[in-house]
Amino acid sequence: MTEILNRTERDILHAAALLRDGKLVAFGTETVYGLGADATNALAVAAVFEAKGRPRFNPLICHYASAEAAFTDVLASPLAERLANTFWPGPLTLVLPRRETCPVALLAGAGLHTLAVRVPAHPVAQRLIAALGRPVAAPSANRSGGVSPTTAAHVLAGLEGRIAAVIESGPCRVGLESTVLDLSGPTPCLLRPGGVNVEALEASIGCQLSVISHQADAPHSPGMMLSHYAPRLPLRINATSLGPHEALLAFGPPLPGARLTFQLSESKNLNEAAAKLFDGLHWLDHTAPPQNLTAIAAMPIPTHAIGRAINDRLTRAAHPL
Ligand code: TXA
Ligand code: MG
After folding, report:
1. Nearest protein CA to atom 20 of ligand 1, as residue
2. d(Cα 39, Cα 104) in Å, to the nearest integer?
3. CA 236: distance to chain centroid?
């Protein structure tokens, strides 16, 4: 049984006690729900991979209460400090070299010499990490390869019975995962577009970012695997017309002939579309089949600002396994 906890002080302390005890607790962040474990407990971290069905070569992000706490475990360059000042707490993950004293279980970083760290902006996440007093390793709280959760109900649909508890933290404000930036090499490298727009990062860094291209076989960042974030139904992107058995993921005025539509943003607001994207995929996945609809068609979405991250997720959701 998975306990459903609330945002009360008492429940957060209980959740922290579960984590201290090596159990897994899902909690809200501003991006998506995370599946948390005490990052310093190798057995608890192993249980995260087990509960998600996640390949062990795919490292986890460690969540900290402050930049200061994060930078005691990883080596921060001046650029890392500047970005942390600008974007933390918030949806930016920095990949940096581990310090020798770093207490995070090696398994959390999949044995790499680097560690992905972030300071989340959600009050539930912040209070939970502070109550534990240790870093919290947390991937998105979904089965590996599936659609990330933006509500506690999504978490339970995928992980009920596999985790000790979920903290009902409300819907996630950003709705897409954090931007992952690798600062461990000679030049900053974008591993995953996400909640912090690339334009904002480049303005802050003062140069264009190099980007890791999708590579199914030799992923630089294993989360860059081509098929990912996938709903059960096949997904077709950039649709300009609709087949008879397709449900519609709309952005702006819907295509004609849709029998079932999930509207990402009537007014074509990209932030609204990002916040609703995963909810839309979850909803269409279980609402379409009973109506004899066997696929999802997604309308085109611009690629600027957070539209870049939306298109990244849709492209990978559309890629066959
Ligand atoms: O918004 C988010 O980032 C959410 C919330 C819960 O914080 N977490 C999340 O975690 O999306 P996950 O595990 O689903 O994605 C982590 C990504 C993966 O693409 C992983 O490969 C990459 O970060 N990553 C983690 N550690 C890394 C490292 N040391 N080097 C390169 N990539 C790393
Ligand atoms: Mg994930």
Report:
1. 223
2. 5
3. 22
**pTM given for the model:** 0.94
CA distance 93 to 71: 13
Would you write out the chain's pLDDT as a tens digit for each of its 321 residues?
999 999 999 999 999 999 999 999 999 999 999 999 999 999 999 999 999 999 989 999 999 999 999 999 999 999 999 999 999 999 999 999 999 999 999 999 999 999 999 999 999 999 999 999 999 999 999 999 999 999 999 999 999 999 999 999 999 999 999 999 999 999 999 999 999 999 999 999 998 888 876 544 344 565 566 667 788 999 999 999 999 999 999 999 999 999 999 999 999 999 999 999 999 999 999 999 999 999 999 999 999 999 999 999 999 999 876
293-305 burial, b for 16+ CB within 10 Å, e for fewer? bebbbbbebeeee
**How far, in Å, from the CA of 275 to the mean position of ligand 2?**
16
For tokens 């870093």, the residue is 135
Task: Identify the CA nearest to 176 among candidates 60, 88, 307, 297.
Answer: 307
Ligand 1 binding site (Cβ under 6 Å of any ligand atom): 29, 31-32, 34, 58-61, 91, 93, 95, 109, 112, 114-116, 120, 138-140, 177-178, 180, 182, 191-192, 221-223
Question: Which ligand is nearest the CA of 31, by number?
Answer: 1
Distance CA 248, CA 242 (A): 8
**Residues written for the chain:** 321
Pocket test for ligand 1, best of 221, 226, 227, 229 (most atoms within 8 A of CB): 221
Q: Which amino acid is at 83?
A: L
